[in-house]
Amino acid sequence: MLTRRHFIATTAALFSAPVAGPALANTWATNAEKASWDAQVTPAGYDPATTNPWGIHPRLLPQRVEARAGLTPGDIHVDAVARYLYHIEDGGTAMRYGVAIGRDGLYEPGTFTIRRKAKWPRWTPTPAMIERDPDTYAQYEDGMDPGPANALGSRALYLYVGNRDTYLRIHGTPQPWSIGSRASSGCVRMIMPHINDLYDTVQTGVTAYLYPAEGNGPTADNLG
Question: Which residue, 7, 54, 80, 181, could crosslink 176 as a Cys pair with Cβ 3.0–4.6 Å?
Answer without folding.
Answer: 54
